[in-house]
Design a protein that fits this description.
- There is one protein chain.
- By secondary structure, the chain is mainly beta.
- Helix content is 14%, strand content 35%.
- An eight-stranded mixed beta sheet has the order 38-39-41-40-42-43-44-45, with helices on both faces.
- A hairpin with a 2-residue loop joins strand 4 and strand 5.
- The two termini are 28 Å apart.
């Protein structure tokens, strides 16, 4: 549940993938975006509006658009995607009509075609590809079938650009996570929970493990909870010299199973069961192994005597030493081990922020490395040496580094919130923390995709009034050209006089200043009183209030005379560790208090109809929506909770225990903030929505909430999407968005 948004990756229970945004391939041609299918529930812009006595007269409300217009893509900004930098940093590749085409960054012109789907047999459309390190070979995939959020099976093919050969990686069935060795002579992959290596020169396939079995042993890829919460799908790594490979082995035999029914229109449902460790329960036992291709020996890596721990990453250093990241069960003690010695250690009285690929970055000299840490209360970068320890801070201040992009020679390129937690800008600074320079000129939110060596970068910028602008720059920030300015969309928004975010702050009774934004309808009249829908996510380290552009289903409500509000309360990110981590072991307590305080603040405004304040959320936000309408029943009259957690005892170990500790040690932190235990307080209108195929937040959460509401004799509404995952895919993604609009118009 890490920083989720309303639409997520497809679970293994779905048959189709998510529809991706419009992209520009080759920095020139706009590919058409097909709208999502519409699954019934047509909204009439006027007759579906139900007005209260103090709300705007529906006869005076003239909506400019409905959700179908958003769904058709009428307000989606055009963008530029599918770009992969080549090693020289001067060229990039993109897939165009099934061909992999090479372009020049400086001009955007096509140089040549590196692969043509029509020139090989079988003819495939590459659904993802990777170059060997020398870029002479390409591994590409087709027939991709999603498993969980990041994992999938596929048919892989190897194309040798010099020999013009095109061959399947293996005839032994679908593979996972195929990856070249650094010398390009071998490819490692996972099949049926075992790790294999293919020698490309001979075609020989070598099986490195033999004990893999579904639901028992996994080699070379993570189990469900590691994939979901530590954010990776490949659990093996090549040594820099290609002579060794390291992998993780997950023994999940002690992990309890979660069964899910699949209906699929059949006479009887089928049961899909998978290992899912809930808070306080047993995790997989993880071991690390290496294989030496010279000696043909397999060796187990010493991870210490503790087995109830996490190994969130394994990495090879530039000088060929295996680094193992070790984290204790409570996730407040993090170590990086090299040859059994801790070269870095961090202990936090609450928790160490989530470990991922960017937590530690080894530099080419093999000795120095950069660590991302909140040791001074804000997320910053620090330079370390294996031999000397801490060398110094690279960044510092009451702001946070949000992304480390690259390190070139002695300069570090990163995104940060310096200036405002609502914004992101690109900066560069020397490794010694001197000569810092801001490279992006505008105020808003930037996303950056650099070329190799940061010779060029693509900038994606937006703010509250500006849809995405995509530009190409040299590494020093100089603009080369604008790739997409979305001028037509901006003109349309201006002509329709659509409202933009109005940012505000207010101070709670406890003295906490919170950030928020409002969307007010066109023709807003401060002498009238308006219904308000609050939208939020509120999860640890998340951010919903940002100076960026976007439109969603809530914007439709604004067209109908509603005010939409959003407030980031305590526990959200970019305001320092104390603001974020104050919710530790009390997950949901302070977040709920702050949303209720925000609702009281809004109710005090003269143009708000205090009897018609509602709240909406998905996933963690759904958990919050339930808590708010129950614990804040004197201020909230309406709530929608989509795919909500209703009791943290039902959610997974890694996420839940990071923020709430073990339920065995913190029963009150779980129970006092679980909406299941406060069902008798419901007074307003409530809609609960869930997919029965949700492998992440199980439908059990909503069923338990329903049982509690029924026992309390409380009326509520429920929508179930059979076989749909956490994002209501494959069949409910469109229907649920129309449902949210319709239900709000009728009941708030």
């Amino acid at each position: 549940m890490w920083r989720k948004q309303p639409v997520w990756a497809v679970s293994m229970l779905t048959a189709v993938g998510l529809i991706t945004p419009t992209i520009v391939l080759g920095m020139g041609t706009i590919s058409a975006m097909e709208s999502n299918p519409h699954y019934g529930l047509k909204i009439d812009a006027r007759t579906e509006y139900c007005a209260g006595p103090s709300s705007p007269d529906p006869e005076t409300v003239t909506p400019r658009f409905d959700y179908a217009a958003i769904e058709r893509g009428e307000f989606w900004p055009r963008s530029v995607g599918g770009v992969r930098s080549m090693r020289d940093g001067e060229h990039y590749t993109a897939v165009v009509d099934g061909h992999i085409v090479r372009y020049r960054f400086a001009t955007g012109e096509a140089v040549d075609t590196l692969f043509s789907s029509r020139a090989v047999t079988p003819s495939i459309y590459p659904d993802g590809y990777e170059f060997s390190e020398d870029e002479r070979k390409i591994i590409m995939r087709s027939d991709v079938r999603p498993i969980y959020r990041r994992s999938f099976t596929a048919r892989y093919y190897i194309y040798d650009r010099e020999k013009r050969t095109f061959e399947p990686l293996s005839d032994g069935g679908p593979q996972e996570q195929a990856c070249f060795s650094p010398d390009g002579e071998r490819v490692a992959f996972v099949r049926d929970n075992n790790l294999f290596v293919k020698e490309l020169s001979t075609g020989q396939e070598r099986q490195l493990t033999t004990d893999g079995r579904f639901g028992e042993i996994i080699n070379g890829k993570p189990d469900w909870v590691y994939e979901e919460e530590f954010g990776f799908a490949r659990a093996f790594e090549w040594a820099p010299d290609s002579r060794q490979i390291a992998w993780m082995r997950f023994d999940e035999r002690g992990v309890r199973e979660y069964p899910m029914n699949r209906f699929d229109g059949g006479l009887y449902p089928t049961v899909y069961s998978f290992k899912y460790p809930k808070a306080g329960e047993r995790n997989s036992a993880v071991e690390v192994y290496t294989y030496d291709f010279d000696t043909e020996q397999t060796n187990q890596v010493d991870l210490g005597p503790e087995t109830d721990q996490y190994i969130p990453r394994i990495k090879w250093t530039p000088r060929g030493e295996l680094a193992v990241y070790r984290l204790n069960r409570l996730q407040n003690h993090f170590e990086v081990l090299v040859n059994g010695r801790a070269i870095y250690e961090e202990i936090d009285p609450r928790y160490v922020e989530r470990i991922d690929d960017a937590t530690v970055r080894f530099l080419p000299d093999g000795d120095r490395f950069i660590v991302r840490s909140e040791r001074d209360g804000y997320m910053h970068l620090y330079l370390y040496s294996q031999s000397k320890g801490l060398l110094g801070a690279i960044t510092s201040g009451e702001w946070e580094v949000t992304q480390l992009l690259d390190v070139v020679d002695d300069r570090v390129y990163y995104l940060s919130s310096e200036g405002s937690p609502l914004r992101r800008n690109l900066w560069s600074v020397r490794l010694d923390g001197k000569k810092k320079e801001r490279l992006t000129p505008l105020d808003g939110v930037y996303s950056i995709i650099p070329s190799e060596g940061f010779r060029y970068y693509m900038s994606y910028f937006s703010n509250a009034t500006t849809p995405t602008i995509v530009t190409l720059h040299r590494g020093d920030g100089r603009l080369i050209r604008t790739l997409e300015d979305n001028a037509a969309l901006r003109a349309r928004i201006d002509s329709m006089k659509l409202p933009s975010k109005e940012f505000f702050t207010f101070t709670t009774a406890e003295g906490f200043e919170l950030n928020g934004y409002l969307l007010r309808p066109e023709g807003f009249d401060s002498t009238r009183r308006y219904p308000v829908l609050m939208t939020q996510y509120s999860g640890p380290g998340s951010q919903s209030v940002a100076d960026s552009w976007g439109m969603g289903w809530e914007d439709v409500l604004v067209q109908h005379g509603y005010v939409v509000a959003c407030v980031d309360g305590r526990g959200t990110g970019l305001r320092g560790a104390d603001f974020k981590k104050c919710t530790y072991r009390e997950l949901g307590k302070y977040e709920t208090e702050d949303q209720i305080a925000a609702a009281r603040y809004l109710a005090s405004l003269p143009w708000v109809d205090a009897s018609r304040i509602g709240i909406y959320g998905w996933s963690y936000g759904g958990f919050m929506a339930l808590n708010c309408i129950l614990k804040g029943n004197d201020v909230f009259s309406f709530a929608i909770a989509v795919a909500p957690v209703t009791n943290w005892r039902y959610y997974d170990t890694i996420y839940t225990e990071l923020y709430n500790g073990l339920p065995q040690d913190n029963a009150s932190g779980y129970d006092d903030n679980s909406p299941v235990n406060f069902a008798d307080r419901l007074r307003g209108k409530l809609l609960i929505v869930h997919g029965t195929g949700d492998d992440n937040v199980h439908v059990q959460n909503s069923y338990e909430m329903i049982s509690a509401l029924v026992r309390a004799g409380k009326p509520f509404d429920m929508m179930v999407y059979p076989d749909c995952n956490h994002g209501m895919w494959p069949t409910g993604g469109s229907h649920v968005m129309h449902l949210l609009v319709d239900y709000t118009l009728k009941n708030l």
